[in-house]
């Protein structure tokens, strides 16, 4: 399905997400969706999708947020776009399994993809917009895909700092995390509210609102599952790729012990925070 993409501005990201990292996310969407589940309700509340709306989900991944958008749109329609063939394939398969008919997925680079139609009522993204190499150009293109009274809503990470709960849980790994994995490049591009406002203003958006949201992120049903999830993450795998097995085993023991702080009857839940951003065109 990689041949579907007719234009690519973000070549590095295309290569990364169509390689082992894209396949990792496509094979285990339940892990990543579980981690972000507590943020879905505030994201969709901000998006305010109504029956009859047409929705574009940018960086849709395995398609959960697109499926949620399609259900909320009712008689409308949801389009999910992602640069990763493995993720688009997974998204199509899961939507078909749930018999959702008002939904479509396309593989493409949303910075330059030729969106058809009169314009979307809502452009939505659960983090996918932070990976663009040229943020202003990308958001300007997405603004052009919106209807005149359309609405942009996206979620992005907030910097937790060295004292954050996640930093405590994974402190043993900190000395090894020397660089982002290829697909993680850009994850820090929209951490600061000032930067978000600057980019969106330059892209032509107005009425920009940036709201902090805190919630517990789900990492697994128990400590062994959470440990497996942490060590499966692409940035961790990337930075530990040349570390010997005995050292990794020791690191796993230390992370597993640290995760004990966050064990609850509902599983391992680590406090985290995001920005939810809305803007008009």
What does this structure look like?
By secondary structure, this protein is α/β, with parallel strands linked by helices. It has a single domain (2-160, 182-217, 269-280), classed as Rossmann fold. Helix content is 41%, strand content 23%. The chain is built from eleven helices and eight strands. The protein is globular, with a radius of gyration of 19 Å. It starts with 10 loop residues before the first helix and ends with a strand.
Q: Quickly name the level 1 CATH class.
A: Alpha Beta
Q: Would you identify the CATH architecture?
A: 3-Layer(aba) Sandwich
What summary fits the major beta sheet?
A: 8 strands, mixed
Number of strands: 8
What's the CATH topology name?
Rossmann fold
- The tally of helices reads 11
| Rounded mean pLDDT score | 95
Name its key features.
eight-stranded mixed sheet, Rossmann fold, single chain, 41% helix, 281 residues, 23% strand, 11 helices, alpha/beta
Q: Quick summary of this structure?
A:
The chain is an alpha/beta fold.
Explain the layout of strands and helices.
Layout: H1 11-17, H2 20-27, H3 29-47, E1 54-58, H4 64-73, E2 77-82, H5 85-97, E3 103-107, E4 120-126, H6 135-145, E5 146-157, H7 165-169, H8 193-202, E6 206-220, H9 223-232, H10 234-239, H11 245-259, E7 263-264, E8 267-280
Helix pairs in contact: 2-5, 9-11
């Amino acid at each position: 399905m990689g041949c579907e993409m007719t234009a690519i501005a973000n070549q590095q990201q295309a290569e990364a997400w169509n390689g082992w990292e894209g396949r990792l996310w496509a094979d285990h969407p339940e892990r990543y969706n579980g981690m972000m589940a507590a943020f879905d309700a505030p994201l969709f509340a901000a998006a305010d999708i109504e029956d009859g709306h047409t929705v574009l989900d940018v960086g849709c991944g395995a398609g959960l947020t697109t499926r949620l958008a399609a259900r909320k749109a009712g008689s409308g329609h949801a389009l999910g776009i992602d640069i990763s063939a493995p993720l688009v394939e997974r998204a199509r398969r899961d939507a078909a399994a749930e018999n959702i008919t008002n939904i479509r997925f396309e593989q493409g680079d949303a910075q330059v993809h030729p969106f058809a139609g009169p314009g979307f009522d809502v452009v939505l993204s659960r983090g996918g917009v932070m990976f663009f190499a040229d943020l202003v150009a990308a958001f300007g293109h997405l603004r052009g895909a919106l209807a005149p009274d359309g609405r942009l809503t996206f979620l992005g990470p907030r910097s937790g700092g060295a004292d954050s709960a996640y930093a405590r849980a994974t402190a043993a790994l900190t000395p090894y995390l020397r660089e982002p994995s290829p697909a993680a490049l850009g994850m820090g591009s929209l951490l600061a509210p000032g930067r978000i406002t600057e980019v969106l203003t330059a892209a032509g958006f107005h009425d920009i609102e940036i709201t902090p949201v805190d919630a517990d992120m789900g990492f697994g049903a128990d400590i062994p599952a959470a440990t497996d999830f942490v060590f499966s993450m692409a940035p961790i795998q990337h930075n530990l790729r040349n570390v010997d097995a005995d050292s990794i085993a020791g690191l796993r023991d230390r992370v597993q012990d640290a995760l004990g702080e966050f064990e609850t009857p509902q599983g391992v839940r680590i406090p985290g925070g995001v920005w939810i951003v809305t803007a008009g065109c």
